[in-house]
From TrEMBL:
SUPFAM superfamilies: TPR-like. This is Tetratricopeptide repeat protein. It comes from Aquibacillus rhizosphaerae. Gene3D superfamilies: Tetratricopeptide repeat domain. Keywords: TPR repeat.
Length: 337
């Protein structure tokens, strides 16, 4: 064997220590990417850290913070709640982080409850000043019993809405249907629930039942935007051109005031192939009010591509993937064709 300075090559190779990344390596990489605001890369590193060292609660907490940054507040709280259930008050900062996420979701009672828990349990906590400021911003104060009940009912409705929205955005139709059925019983006056229900029902394969529901509701309320948009989508999916034209033509002259309604019409136009009109609607929307909707980025990007705004389409899709990791599981819209 040839040697170098009296040491064989075999001996040198034997002394090489292989580098095997551990959880700390992945965690450090994730934090570096997070500090550079490269959230998609940070999530990949943190997930590797958690896979490598699943018992390191700090890794889970840091991953939850990334989900908070991209607006996935429910996912963040699921992670933090699990940390608290397994480690208790050893990770008391979780209470503040959960409160902050609830505040973003508009669940004020829950936000207040977790903020007070944090302030009680962490006398000298790192987030104490932030928690005190959050409590001031919530501005709930001491309400009487009737007001407390009203807040609890409002929070319960928001929880239903957010959870149903989560499943609908991910096309998890069966889960959405089960939740919306319950929601319609608990909150029978909440109009949107029944239309989201028929939408989920249609795409789960129960097309005729969904259509009959919407036709019945439209007869009761002829100006219903929910019914008109749903029926336009349903008949477009069924390739029923005559009935599709009937409903889409009435929507083309409707210009609502509220952003959620504007988004509903824009996505309906995009879903049904009217990309130019959809794009014109999307560019008038206020993104800050709609960035929590994966569908906003999905269909805006799709529409931009079809009106030859490729750079805009790519920009929207990349931003959407950062804010909504679920989009990364889907083919890029224009590759689906």
């Amino acid at each position: 064997m040839q040697t170098t300075e009296g040491i064989s090559i075999e001996t040198k190779i034997d002394k090489v220590i292989p580098f095997i990344p551990d959880g700390d390596f992945y965690f450090t990489k994730g934090v570096e990417a997070f500090n550079k605001r490269k959230f998609d890369i940070a999530l990949k590193w943190l997930k590797k850290a958690v896979e490598t060292s699943p018992d390191e609660a700090v890794y889970h907490c840091q991953m939850s913070i990334i989900y908070t940054e991209i607006g996935s507040y429910h996912t963040a709280n699921q992670i933090l709640t699990k940390v608290l259930s397994e480690y208790g008050d050893s990770y008391v900062d979780c209470y503040y982080l959960i409160a902050n996420n609830y505040a973003h979701l508009g669940l004020l009672q829950d936000a207040k409850k977790y903020t007070l828990s944090y302030l009680e349990k962490a006398q000298d906590g790192d987030f104490r000043e932030d928690a005190e400021n959050l409590l001031t911003v919530l501005d709930i104060g001491d309400e009487d019993d009737d007001d407390d009940w009203a807040f609890e009912e409002e929070d319960e409705l928001l929880i239903y809405q957010e959870t149903a929205f989560y499943h609908l955005e991910r096309r998890e139709w069966d889960q959405a249907i089960a939740l919306l059925e319950e929601m319609m019983v608990v909150f029978p006056e909440h109009i949107a629930a029944k239309h989201e229900y028929s939408f989920a029902l249609f795409f789960s394969g129960q097309e005729e039942e969904a259509i009959n529901m919407e036709l019945e509701w439209l007869e009761e309320e002829p100006q219903s935007l929910f019914s008109q948009t749903n029926l336009a989508v349903f008949y477009s999916e069924q390739k029923n051109e005559a009935l599709f034209n009937k409903y889409i033509s009435s929507l083309q002259n409707v210009f609502p005031i509220h952003e959620q309604q504007k988004l509903r019409i824009a996505t309906t136009l995009a879903r049904t192939g009217l990309y130019k009109e959809a794009y014109e609607r999307f560019i008038t929307l206020t993104k800050s009010q709609l960035k929590g909707h994966a569908s906003y980025f999905h269909w805006f990007s799709f529409s931009a591509y079809h009106v030859n705004k490729l750079s805009k389409a790519i920009e929207l899709w990349e931003e959407g993937c950062k804010r909504h990791p679920v989009l990364r599981k889907e083919p890029i819209p224009w590759v689906q064709e």
